[in-house]
Design brief:
Low-confidence stretches: 1-24
Radius of gyration: 22 Å
Distance between the termini: 29 Å
Number of strands: 14
Largest sheet: 5 strands, mixed
Length: 341
């Protein structure tokens, strides 16, 4: 009798799970039917998301788009990149223009609730900073009283900027811009004394200058900017897929699974979590409507989190960002994947 009840409950759970995919998993079904992932990205921020002369997109955020496509469609190239500005990114996601937003977006209360969006995790811990021409001789943001400041509208940086100057009894004149490309243009044309955005964005922007050494990123970080991929409310299974794809990349670095050794570890690893991550044991894939090698494909698309970081924005790239808070938790950072079990 107990055996009957157990299997009955299991069957009911499986039925409900299947029903759940049908009721909530529309994005997964749509992506599979389309055979292409629509990924909303920054229109152009070197290191994070930018196209080359041939229209090939590369960057830190692009790598997540590719990883999700590999997990869901089995091919990391099946992505249509949709450039979205700070003003259009959330409407682009809410309207269904894109399936996933991977575009330097800060996780905030109002975006998570009032905009009815879900942040699927954090892929970069950032903070807002300031960049000024070296020739101004400014060494601290507290010397910017009365300055003109270029700032992207529709971003959290607008409110942070107002809060910071108010708290320090300083004034400023905003120069509103709509994209990083326009900000770079206005800043280089001298339309503003300083440019403010996420510190990672400043580093990426400066790296694209002809003479990056002529520009200084000031030491003050005036906000917390947890950046991460975003999906729509109401499609929990799709949110799980994006969230656990990101976690797969982070966990792979923690457990030493790289693009170079993943095939060998698929055959020889004795680590139970690695075995579950790579689909050797367990049935984690079925729980999110995918096959059991979804995470393996995601990792193979561009490497683990550390490999992606190093190749796109790390210290050996022109962007030159240190891992800092984005190091693994085992290395003093905040990067931490939930357990694969």
């Amino acid at each position: 009798m107990k055996t009957f009840v157990f299997f009955g409950a299991a069957a009911t759970a499986a039925t409900l799970a299947s029903a759940g995919f049908g009721a909530e998993g529309d994005t997964l079904a749509e992506v599979k039917a389309r055979d292409e992932l629509n990924c909303g990205v920054n229109p152009g921020l070197v290191g994070f998301a930018s196209p080359d002369a041939n229209g090939n997109w590369t960057g830190f955020d692009i790598s997540l788009c590719k990883a999700v496509a590999a997990a869901v469609l089995g091919d990391s190239s099946k992505v249509r990149y949709v450039p979205l500005t700070g003003q259009t990114r959330f409407t682009g996601l809410s309207s269904g223009e894109v399936d996933l937003l991977a575009r330097n977006s800060t996780w905030t209360f109002s975006r998570d609730t009032d905009l009815t969006l879900d942040f699927a995790g954090i892929n970069y811990y950032d903070g807002q900073g300031f960049m000024v021409p070296r020739e101004l001789g400014v060494s601290s943001a507290k010397e910017l009283d009365g300055a003109t400041i270029c700032i992207q509208t529709g971003t959290t940086t607008e409110l942070n900027l107002a809060d910071y100057f108010s708290a320090n009894n300083m004034s400023y004149q905003p120069v509103n811009i709509e994209s990083n490309a326009e900000g770079e243009q206005q800043y280089m044309a001298g339309a503003c004394d300083a440019y403010t955005t996420d510190a990672s964005g400043l580093a990426a922007t400066r790296a694209a200058f002809a003479n990056p050494q002529d520009h200084v990123i000031l030491p003050e970080i005036i906000s917390k900017e947890p950046l991460g991929p975003v999906v729509r409310h109401g499609d929990n299974n799709w949110g799980d897929i994006v969230r656990w794809t990101l976690y797969a990349l982070i966990a792979a670095e923690e457990y030493g699974v790289t693009s170079a050794n993943i095939e060998e570890l698929s055959k020889s690893s004795e680590n139970p979590e690695v075995q579950r991550l790579l689909g050797i044991t367990g049935d984690l894939g079925a729980m999110i409507g995918l096959d059991n090698e979804w995470a393996k494909r995601a990792i193979m698309a561009g490497g683990n989190y550390g490999e992606i970081f190093a190749a796109t924005i790390g210290e050996q790239t022109p962007i030159g960002l240190a891992r800092g808070l984005n190091a693994q938790w085992t290395q003093g950072g905040l990067m931490y994947a939930m357990p694969f079990r």
